[in-house]
Design brief:
The chain contains three helices and no strands. The chain has helices at 7-30, 45-58, 66-88.
Length: 95
């Protein structure tokens, strides 16, 4: 069975997921749970915003969403990789 979210919920759902993905590190930095260097993981937000703009404009035309999919893959991969690098390497952590 295929369940489709619909155009409007998909637009807002993507915005919510993006907000959570970038808001969580900001909150953790503000609470002192992540080093300030973790701000580098927010750099891919530019690609996420570009993807959201494509989605917002073309949500009703799935054939036009390829650029948004590529930008989403790029931003999610870069966001996770940058955050992982900050967490694994000792930068900003007391030894």
């Amino acid at each position: 069975m295929v369940v489709r979210l619909g155009v409007e919920p998909a637009r807002w759902g993507y915005a919510l997921i993006t907000l959570l993905a970038y808001g969580w590190p900001l909150l953790m930095i503000a609470l002192g749970r992540l080093p300030a260097l973790a701000l580098v993981a927010l750099l891919p937000v530019v690609a996420s915003i570009a993807a959201a703009r494509v989605l917002w404009a073309n949500a009703a035309r799935p054939e036009q969403l390829a650029p948004a999919l590529k930008l989403t893959i790029l931003s999610a991969s870069a966001h996770g990789l940058l955050l992982a690098i900050v967490l694994v390497l000792p930068w900003g952590h007391p030894i």
